[in-house]
Amino acid sequence: GENVEQHPSTLSVQEGDSAVIKCTYSDSASNYFPWYKQELGKRPQLIIDIRSNVGEKKDQRIAVTLNKTAKHFSLHITETQPEDSAVYFCAARTHGGSQGNLIFGKGTKLSVKP
Amino acid sequence: EPEVTQTPSHQVTQMGQEVILRCVPISNHLYFYWYRQILGQKVEFLVSFYNNEISEKSEIFDDQFSVERPDGSNFTLKIRSTKLEDSAMYFCASSTTGNPSYEQYFGPGTRLTVT
């Protein structure tokens, strides 16, 4: 089955700096890669996603890149702010059924220091 | 904006007891999921459900677990005989049908504590 690896497990940056989180996946048939932000004690919230027919997607300060050949995708946050502090999870969508489930990475705890 | 809701927010139960966790997916969604997250760990897939039957399930979803859509709005997860290791946050999620919408919307979670 699909396996998603995520690095780093913790990341500390100064406010205004950029943050990059990387994930790799094992199943070349996976075709959907969302990123979720989870604040302490709250539900995971989708912040950006990318499909396998696209190499890059940007939404204001957040961007995601996908390299299908290498089977890795990355989250880039520019001009980080303290409110970006949270745990970020990458995920890959497997096949199966009518709408596949998500396999998550282990998460990256991002701390943005003012 | 419509949201997935879950009840209760926190459930404490004794080992061996049955628990039912309840979810109300977004009303026009047709795909439903349960995930769990043990404290400090990643979110893990349990089961997906479509058209009144299980689409996929993980190794975690053994015979102690079952899901049901008892009416047009609720989606439940039952654990027949809880174990200590079932203690976790359980998230329900739902999504619409068809491409290109794959987004899964998560509920706020139910924290299950087994003592």
Structure report:
The complex is a heterodimer of chains A (114) and B (115). Chain A is an all-beta fold and 114 residues long. Helix content of chain A is 0%, strand content 55%. In chain A, β9 and β10 (102-104) form a beta hairpin. Chain B is mostly beta strands. Chain B has strands at 5-7, 10-13, 19-24, 31-37, 43-50, 53-57, 65-68, 75-79, 88-95, 105-106, 110-114. In chain B, strands 2, 4, 5, 6, 9, 10 and 11 form a seven-stranded mixed sheet that branches. Chain B has a four-stranded antiparallel sheet with strand order 1-3-8-7, with no helix packed on it. Chain B is globular. The mean pLDDT of chain B is 91. Chain A binds chain B through residues 32, 34, 36, 42-46, 49, 51, 89, 91, 93, 96-107, and chain B through 31, 33, 35, 41-45, 48, 50-51, 55-56, 58, 91, 95, 97, 100, 102-109.
State the gist of this model.
The complex is a heterodimer of chains A (114) and B (115). With 114 residues, chain A is mainly beta. Chain A is built from no helices and eleven strands.
How would the global form of chain A be characterised? globular
Given helix and strand content, the structural type of chain B is mainly beta
Low-confidence stretches of chain B: none
- Summarize the helix and strand pattern of chain B as letters: EEEEEEEEEEE
* Poorly predicted sequence stretches spanning 5 or more consecutive residues of chain A: none
Helix content of chain B: under 10%
Question: In angstroms, what separates the terminal alpha carbons of chain A?
Answer: 41 Å
Q: How much is the radius of gyration of chain B in Å? A: 13 Å
Euclidean distance between termini CA atoms of chain B: 37 Å
Give a quick account of the main beta sheet of chain A: strands, pairing sense, barrel closure. 6 strands, mixed
For the largest beta-sheet of chain B, the strand count, sense and barrel status come to:
7 strands, mixed
